[in-house]
Amino acid sequence: MALRDLTAAQQLAALAAGETTSLELVDAHLAAVDADPVQAFLAVDADGARARAREIDALPERPPLGGVPIAIKDALSTRDIVTTSGSRMLEGFRPVYTATCVDRLEAAGAIVLGKTNMDEFAMGSSTENSAYQNTLNPWDHERVPGGSSGGSAASVAERQVPWSLGSDTGGSIRQPASLCGIVGMKPTYGAISRYGLIAFASSLDQVGPFARTVEDAALLLRHMVGRDPMDSTSLDWPGEITVPTATDLAGVRVGVVDELMGEGVEPGVRAAVEASLGVMEDLGATVVPVSLPSALSGLATYYVIAPAECSSNLARFDGIRYGHPIPADNLLDQYELTRGELFGPEVKRRIMLGTFALASGYYDQYYGRAQRLRTLIVREFAEAFSGVDLLASPTSPTVAFPLGDRTADPYAMYMADVCTIPVSLAGLPAISLPCGLADGLPVGLQLAGPAFSENRLLDAAHAVEGALAFDTRPPGLMT
Amino acid sequence: MSDFEPVIGVEIHVQLSTHTKMFCGCALSFGDPPNTHTCPVCLAHPGVLPVVNEEAVRRAILIGLALGCEIAPRSIFHRKNYFYPDLPKAYQVSQFDIPICGRGEFVAVRDDGSEIRVGITRAHLEEDAAKLTHLGGRRAGAEESVVDFNRGGTPLVEIVTEPDLRSASDAVTFLRQLRQTLLFLGVSDCSMEEGSMRADANVSIRPVGSHGFGTKTELKNMNSFRFLERGIEAEITRQEGILRDGGRVSQETVHYEPETGHITSLRSKEESHDYRYFPEPDLVPVAPDPGWVGELRGELPELPLALRRRMVGEMGLTAEDAEVLTESPELVAYFMDAAALADPKACANWIRGELRAQLREVGTEPWESRVSPAHIAALVDLLGAGTVSVPAAKEVLAGMIETGEQPDAVVEAKGLAQMDESDLAAVIDALVEANPDQAQQLRDGKDKVIGFFVGQAMKQTNGRADPQAVQRLVRAAVLGD
Amino acid sequence: MLGYSPPPMIDESTVRHVARLARLRLSPEEEQVMQQELSGILGHIDAITSMDLDGVPPTTHVIALENVLRADVPRDSLPREEALREAPDVVDDSFGVPRMD
Ligand SMILES: [Mg+2]
Ligand SMILES: [Zn+2]
Q: In the listed set B292, B312, B346, which residue is the last one of a domain according to the structure?
């Protein structure tokens, strides 16, 4: 078995047994990164990674993440490694600091191989909004990997790295995980520091792991959670993230969200999700229908709140302290030309939408109401979790769609996140795991839980994963 | 007499003199080389987040308590969005509908002792902008500006008043006494020149007797009380002129040119501001524990208004004495220490008068000088006991300033002890005999001539005579009374 | 799921006003496309403007944290070369800004 076919846990075991070294692992994965058939990477730090691997290999004792390589979404600030957030606005930008979550993983022994492609400033569901390149779905190079963390998802599915980091605002980890046939998790809002995550929508953004197994996702999560003095909205993690071992779902009550199993869901997706619900029952779970009446207005709520926050978060890109402004002889022209030219169409669309939603005369009608709708959604989840332990739904209503299929219709693209957005609005943790194929393409099952139920979610996902035995190898990697 | 009445409210920005900035750990500095106190947070690099400075919150609450404000049990931060190069995030983190300090009232006292009651609308926390300097045509003929982010992110408290002020001089009296209060709290340097205290005034006028409000203009950022007073007066005059001519005042920002005394409009070509305030998602609410607020209330020093009332009511000082002595917390402490040991009114006179006058010559303040409050009290006691005359006491003071010695030691060293009455009587008798013409004038009822004898007597005794005793003895010698 | 689409609610002058607020220079073609797309999106979003939300408070934060405060203790600032290293226009150790009028 090639080194890159090993899961992170298997790589750690091989390191512990002295069967390989960090440098070997880094080199094996760098070879796959260099070839990059799915165009997942925007920047590769081969020299830095090898140097770090040698350092770790020389340590008397291996750190917990042992020297296993990782890829990082380009939305996360990495000192001296070009970080663009998929935008021309930050072309060539070398940050002076590293995001807390990346710092923590590096301190635990993870080795950053490079930065992965994404929709510009994390706005999109297909990674086609990257200013640099399209990333291809490892299962079908004609199709999108999902987004916005498409590069991170594709790199894991393509086995260029065993795991990676993404960020999820309305589904940007879970949806690409679903479309690429891997595991992706969005933790409870506040579980992982956002310091160093280039903000899209601050009240929704969360960093989270991609991996090919639930166990690997847990291992990564374990080293990132907890309060960061640099992020006022980060939380002390109660206890610790444990490595999941559950093999059944005895006594677990699972609610199936009615509103998210309706007409917009592709039949093949619904079939795969229903089949996995059956498997969950076989594992001992009680599966009951649950209603979240405001779930569908979640999409509209989200497309007011997220653009409003992004319009403010992206205002700092003015070409004065960093970036490459389009020069003009007066400031107003320079601001407008720079921002008009260097932001892509989707980013401009959302800035416009958000500026409008906050503008005087429209605030109450849009932003104010969206925040109150958010309250209803929070309440409905709380109500639902008084009766069930977990909520299940498809992660994405469709499988991976062809490149270019939805780029002409912004709202059709927005529908890709209809199942993931309500959970984001409520700030709850959710995991997407591959649960089957439809037309030869992966389908994701989303399991969501109450705040801080990550261990319960990981355990349940681990049990389902074991029973489903989904083969995460895309057809091109089957030998 | 004008048939219009001015209606004035003020907004004051106060930089808090904390160690670090509002939302990051950069040290505050004044006058350091540009861009030496910055970090990713205050430069608004991608991905950074703000964290609230606890000391800034503490000081904002102290200010609120001193202004009699309600302290919000739970206040939140908002973003105020606008593009400007001195605002790196293109939004200012400020407070909007739930400021940390709500309604309050501040009482200022005019020179005649009457009160000016000014409603405080709110006091909220925010961050200062960076320093933008216009270079003019320095670079290749192109006008350009440069930004130094050292000041960017300095904690600010913005205090907004109700439109309760009715004259420029009241506005300035209020601001001076507010400044004094802030200095007593120790929250800010409150330097108008250095910009650590900045005041804007909202000015409108209305017919006397009416209760509506006219259209107001905003007089921006005056850097001294004097200019502020003149600026408000000029703006009132300008508005009166407009209304008398049948015109209408338009709502705009105006600027006072101290050199010409003119008011100019700052109306920008930009469309009206739309700040798109919304709750700052990167910060959580500030909900000060009531116990903590109670502790802070207990920590409040005695504030100038209460001090002035006590000085006048209990210590026998005039309103003017009290005003002068409450100029700074240091001066108050100095006076109080002296007044605890000797007659307060006499201490007040000597400290605000001769001591400060003499120290001004050498450019120092009482509390920094070699003269301690106890020295002043001792001097006052020497005067009270008749040991030294007033003119001699001034000389004693000069000696104390120079040597730092106790007044009695200076009296001793300089031989300034007052002559006893029989020695003085002998000097006077000789004087009267030597000056028969002046003695005759006094007999003829020309009282003024007594000054001549006092002057001569002081000269002959090297100031050791008590001028009042001289007068009495001259009258006795010449008139026999 | 959210099917209906009421008439466009954003006119050209609103698009221009919002673009100015957001400091985005849009070409006339972009303005036109933006007007159509925003109107379309708002058509979908508009459902929220008719929902009954009486007595429902807004959610600004999904977490119940309060009083996250930092001690007033200085930390190292960036060396000035680092503060300025990504700046496109450095003048007198400061960030250059074009003429403002
Ligand atoms: Mg302000
Ligand atoms: Zn800083």
A: B292
Nearest to B76 by CA among B218, B369, B352, B283: B283
- Contact (Cβ atoms closer than 8 angstroms) between residue B358 and residue B398: yes
Residues in chain A: 479
How do the domains of chain C map onto residue ranges? 12-49
Question: What is the pLDDT, as a whole number, of residue B137?
Answer: 57
Complete domains list, chain A, with CATH: 3-244 (3.90.1300.10)
- Known catalytic residue: A73? yes
Q: Is C22–A311 a contact, with Cβ atoms under 8 angstroms apart? A: yes
Residues B175 and B33 in one domain: yes
Do B373 and B338 form a contact (C-beta atoms < 8 A)?
A: yes
B65-79, B438-452, C70-84: segment of lowest average pLDDT: B438-452
Q: Which of B177, B249, B188, B243 is nearest to B219 (CA)?
A: B249
> Are residues B85 and B232 both part of a single domain?
yes
Q: How far apart are CA B141 and CA B475, in angstroms?
A: 82
Q: Fold for C12-49, please state it.
A: Histone, subunit A (1.10.20)
Chain C residues with CB-CB distance to B under 8 A?
A: 17, 20-21, 23, 60-61, 63, 65-75, 77-78, 80, 83-84, 91-101
Angstrom distance (rounded) from CA A305 to CA A375: 13
Q: What residue numbers bound the domain in which B255 lies?
A: 4-292
Report the CATH number that the domain containing residue B448 is assigned in CATH: 1.10.10.410
pTM of the model: 0.91
What's A136's DSSP letter? P
Same structural domain, B312 and B194: no
Which portions of chain C are predicted below pLDDT 70?
1-8
pLDDT at res. B464? 79
Helix (H) or strand (E) holding B352: none
Size of interface B-C (CB pairs under 8 A): 122
Asked if residue B141 has pLDDT above 60, the reply is no
Residues B334 and B228 in one domain: no
In this prediction, residue B466 carries a pLDDT of 80
The count of structural domains within chain B is 3
In a domain, B222, yes or no: yes
Q: What percent of chain B has pLDDT over 90?
A: 70
Residues B189 and B119 in one domain: yes
pLDDT, average across residues B359-373: 94
Q: What are phi and psi of B194, to 5 degrees?
A: -85, -5
pLDDT at B465 over 90: no
Residue A156 Cα, gap to closest chain B Cα (Å): 24
Residues B308 and B445 in one domain: no
Residue B391: pLDDT band (50, 70, 90) is confident
pLDDT at B139 over 60: no
CB crowding B443-475: b at 16 or more within 10 Å, else e: eeeeeebbeebbebbbeebebbbbbebbbbbbb
**Is the pLDDT confidence value at B121 over 90?**
yes
Instruction: Based on the fold, state whether residues B425 and B372 are members of the same structural domain.
Output: no
* Min Cα separation B47/chain A (Å): 4
Look over chain B and give the mean of its residue pLDDT values, rounded to a whole number: 92
Kindly report the nearest CA distance between residue A191 and chain C, in angstroms.
10
Chain A residues touching chain B at CB-CB below 8 Å: 76-77, 83, 85, 90, 93, 95-97, 99, 194-199, 201-203, 229-233, 308-309, 311-312, 315-318, 320-322, 329, 331, 335, 355, 358-360, 363, 367
Q: What pLDDT score was predicted for residue A479?
A: 66
pLDDT of residue C3: 45
> What confidence tens digit (pLDDT) does each residue in A270-309 have?
999 999 999 999 999 999 999 999 988 999 999 999 999 9
Query: Which CA distances in Å does B336 have to B177, B345, B353, B371, B400?
Result: 19, 11, 16, 14, 20
| pLDDT at site C101 | 72
Instruction: Quote the ligand 2 centre to B25 CA distance (angstroms).
Output: 6
Q: Residue A156: what pLDDT?
A: 98
